[in-house]
Amino acid sequence: MGATQTDTPFISITSGEALEPWRRVKLNSSNKAVYAGVGENHIGVTQNRVDAADLPVNVKTRFAPGTFKIECSGAVAIGADVFGTASGCIDDVAGGPCVGVARTAGSGAGSEIEIMPKSLVHEIPLVTAKTANYTVTVAENGQCFTTDGASGAVTFSLPPAVVGLNYMFRVGAAQELRIDPDGTEKVSLPSTGVPGAAGKYLTADANGETVRLYCTKAGEWSVFGHTGTWTAEA
Question: Distance between CA 88 and CA 215 in Å, rounded?
């Protein structure tokens, strides 16, 4: 039998466990719906409750049009970026890839809110100039940092490399820009793609040089595009 195709935003999936409505789910190794955990990507949001495994559950797919109703694990402010938490819930404490933006407020654990998924939010990377050493945060995922106006070397300290995090950097002055991984984590050398030594930073110092780092494997940063010459710490 050949592959099939579903042309609606809702699909019926066999559950892999008991599931509550308005929760994020992923597929397990048996192709069954189970809760997506902290920082994990999801395929959609449950629309009904099932009390055990091997029952049909209706799921609104992740890239379906419109907004989503989803359950919180903590208080959420209107307009806040929301992130995946345990048991398929969300809150506004940064961790892993951003799920969407809250259109309504959540009062705490168990409350339900409306979110706009990231697929509906027009993403224009925020560009921020830094002239002194700076610690990049998870909440700044997807942003671009420059060193416009710097009069000396600027070091950007990265957060722990969690799958889905990505950042862009542009040398904005004829001064060294360093990108320093957390602890003993590794950054790939742009020219070869080979991971550098543990804990060693990337550096460039010519105005206009750029690099985009993306974490596709926990503990490591890969390069998805660069201009100019970037070298590793000796």
Answer: 22
State the chain's maximal CA–CA distance in angstroms.
66
Q: Which residues pair with 212 in a beta bridge?
A: 168
Paired with 24 in beta bridges are: 45
C-alpha separations of 161 from 45, 97, 144, 182, 184 in Å: 26, 11, 17, 8, 11
At 140-182, the pLDDT tens digits run 888 899 999 999 999 999 999 988 888 999 999 999 999 999 9
CATH classification of 127-232 is 3.90.1150.10, yes or no?
Answer: no
Return d(Cα 28, Cα 108) in angstroms, integer.
29
Token readout for 42 is 């999801």
This prediction's pTM: 0.58
Instruction: Quote the CA–CA distance of 167 and 213 in Å, as a whole number.
Output: 5
Q: In the chain, which segments carry CATH 2.60.120.640?
A: 127-232
